[in-house]
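Aim 2 progress update. The chain analyzed this quarter is reproduced below.
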Amino acid sequence: MLWFEHKLFDQIEILQILDWFASPGEGHPGLHLISSGTLEGMPMVRGLGKLSLQQIIALWPDRMPISAPALARARRGWGHLGLRTRARLNGIWLRQIL
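Predicted structure tokens:
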């Protein structure tokens, strides 16, 4: 189990790790995502560290499998972060919008 929070750094780390799992030959042995954004009785949860063991266990049934297309999107996203110039990034974003 890997634990990430809502912070930008954590979200970028998720991209990096999913990119690794998307690498040829790595595969993804039953990867799942557990989102702790909301929980009964708590309008906003900002990380597993705020939850009791029972609350964490209650999130398990709502886990979502990480699909091959999701891994491919993560790979593209991580690749875009590696680009050096703003102009190249803007070109990528414009192509996706248009």
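The chain has one domain: 8-97. The longest strand covers residues 32-33. These observations will guide the mutagenesis experiments scheduled for the next reporting period.
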